[in-house]
Amino acid sequence: MKLAPDGRLAPGRYVASPNHDERPAGEAPTLLVVHSISLPPGEYGGDAIERLFTNRLDPAAHPYFREIEALRVSSHFLIRRDGELLQFVPVDRRAWHAGESRWRGRERCNDFSIGVELEGTDDAPFDARQYATLASLVAALRAPLPLRAIAAHSDIAPGRKTDPGPGFDWPRLLAELAAP
User: Fold this and answer.
1) Burial of 114 (0-12, 13-18, 19+ CB in 10 A)
2) Strand segments (E) across the chain
3) DSSP three-state, residue 116
4) Residue 29 burial (CB count, 10 A)
5) Structure letter (DSSP) for residue 91
6) Cis peptide before 144 (omega within 30 of 0)
7) What is the per-residue burial (b if ≥16 Cβ within 10 Å, else e) of 53-69?
8) Which of 38, 31, 11 is CA-nearest to residue 138?
9) Residue 33 and residue 156 in contact, taking contact as beta carbons nearer than 8 Å
10) When you count CB atoms within 10 A of the terminal residue's CB, does the N or C end of the chain come out lower?
11) What is this structure's pTM?
């Protein structure tokens, strides 16, 4: 994987989300935030996550979708259960993934972070292919970006968010990042 000058990762599938804007002047991503998502909740596969991040979610397709249809959110990346990587927002842009958040005394984590969604739930293990893709993604982003930390969504929005939850194996990710 390699980051192109336009903020897109190659190779990879890019699905443009409108849910982003400019980072504040002089702000570069120093934090990577790990999230988890499944739509409908607890179900994997399908295109509902892509539809949510591109404002095309059909509220009639599932009762839960009526509750979230007005959301305007996205992440920079999504890693599917099979390890497939999708990108929604160039890394030089501010994706709307963290919401009200704080990391090490700094508010508004979207300003200085990269958001990565893993297809999954807070209470179930993630797939080995997802860890491998996440480790490769982090390695590809660390070279051109000043990333210094990785945090859970629950770390930056405690009490409001719980993802990626206890099903996420942090020691495994750290081992994969340390592997040559």
Assistant:
1) buried
2) 2-3, 9-10, 13-14, 20-22, 31-37, 77-79, 85-87, 93-95, 102-103, 106-107, 113-119, 149-152
3) strand
4) 23
5) T
6) no
7) bbeebeeeebeebeeee
8) 31
9) yes
10) C
11) 0.97
Which DSSP category does 153 fall into?
H
Q: Is 43 a catalytic residue?
A: no
Dist. CA 13–CA 62, nearest whole Å: 26
Alpha carbon distance 86, 14 (integer Å): 6
Q: Is 35 in contact with 110 (CB distance < 8 Å)?
A: no
- Helix (H) or strand (E) holding 137, with range, is helix 128-142
DSSP of 10-57: ESSEE---S-EEEPPTT----EEEEEEE-SSTT--SSSHHHHHHTT--
Identify the three-state secondary structure at position 69: coil
Neighbours of 23 (CB within 10 A): 18
pLDDT tens track of the chain, all 180 residues?
999 999 999 988 999 999 999 999 999 999 999 999 999 999 999 999 999 999 999 999 999 999 999 999 999 999 999 999 999 999 999 999 999 999 999 999 999 999 999 999 999 999 999 999 999 999 999 999 999 999 999 999 999 999 999 999 999 999 999 987
